[in-house]
Every structure is written in C-alpha cells, then in structure tokens.
Specification:
This protein has 272 residues and is α+β, with helices and mostly antiparallel strands. 48% of the residues lie in helices and 12% in strands. It contains eleven helices and six strands.
Amino acid sequence: MIVGFILSESIYNIGEFARSFADIKNLHKKLQILKILFAYLGICAIMSFKKKQVQFVSPFVFVEKRTAKILETGGIRMEQMDYQQLFEELFCSNITREGSKELLSWLKRTDFFTAPASTRYHCACEQGLVMHSVSVFQTMVEQYFEDGDSMESFAICGLLHDVCKAQFYKVSSRNVKNQETGRWEAQNYYSIEDQFPYGHGEKSVFLIERFLRLKPSEAVAIRWHMGGFDEAARGGSYSISQAYEKYPLAVKLHLADLQSTYLKERGTSNYR
C-alpha cells in the first residue's frame, strides 16, 4: 500500500509516507518504491524547469494544476492528466526487455492512447484505455507485490493486458430524446468495430509477442485476465482454474483488473 500514499506539500502526508516506508522490511521492495518515486521527482523537476505548475498526486500520478479535474469516484480521487506521458514513463522505467522499444513505437501508431476502455461500463472516455492500464498496474503493485515478484512482469501485465482494445472501438452517433425539451438530439456513443477479431486475452498475447517475448507466467496471466468473464471460461473451459493454480501472477492481474474496473474507475464513463 505504500506506493498508494498521496504526496503533497502537506508535512503530515510526507511524515506518514516516511513512517510507512520505514515499516517495510523487504529491501527489494524498498528499492522498487524508491525507483518509482525518484522517476516522478525527475518528471516534476523537468516540468518545473519548463515553468509548468505541477501537483503530485502519488508516486504514479502527476497533473498540471491548471488542467486538473477531480472526479469523485466512490471516495477515490482520479485525475484527468496526460496519461500517455505517464504510461510511457512507467513503461520505459520498468520494461527493458528486447523488443520493448519497438512495442511502444507500435502502440503510438495505434489509437491505444486515445481509445476508451469500454463502450460504457468503465473509462468510456477519451484516453480511457491508457487510464485503465495505468490503474491496473498501480493496483497490482500496491496490493499484490511480494518477495520474489518481478516489477517488469507486473508492468508488462498491468500496462499491456488490454492492448487487444487498440483499434477496437469507434465513436458513433444516435438520436436521444431530451427529457426537458422533448426534442430528439444527436448523441455520441462508443461502439465496437474490431479490426482484428482474434479474441481478448489471447489477442493481447499475440500482439505483444510480435515484438517482445513473454515469460510463460506473463502470457498465461494476460490470456486469462478476464477470469470468469472470458468467453472460453463461460463456455466451460477448465484451463482457467489450472492457470490460476499454477501461476499466482495470473490471479493477481485478474484481481487488480476487477478492483480497478469496479471500484477505482466508477464514474469515469462519458457515455452510458
């Protein structure tokens, strides 16, 4: 939970962070937390040099004060920010495997950084997909990182599990009756136009491995991150239970995905 602490100019919050950090006994985890923290302190310094006013929200999140728009989501504050810049910083600082640069370059050529994460259920808004990806990675680290876990594997699974949703949605329009005026008005909504119908989790695995070689645990985790919502699981496949029993990473990704979708991202959809 230490990486979820909010950093601000408040002496109380800084003191709370220091006390909680001191309580951590695992040296490896401390080093990983410091790595993430210093990366964002570096971003803060760069942005300040450019004379932009920056506010820290957490070691994972920074926003420009003049553009910050707080969304109250069931007691959890989510910020509107440059999620692409945040994603790229997390990606580059944690994923160094051969092919990672080519993978990131490909993502930039798709609509990954502007697409929604769903048609209406969660993060159905511009940048919703990258917002959700960052949220899942953050939740995985906060809740489930243990001794022996790999931060690179967590980053690959959290940040890339939904690359299958790139080139997947489109903005459509429909007429909706205005209850106040009684008039019909055009209203935008997200619909599905899958340009590569290859499934969901398995599609993400396929797309990632065009550039970067996944470990078996990573491939299985991404393949089955939908849990019981996966079409194969709903059709009666027993592979998912075997995957979760053999690979704890798969369970952690699924739980982080659920928590982000149904708790942290409530109220983030523009269209219903």
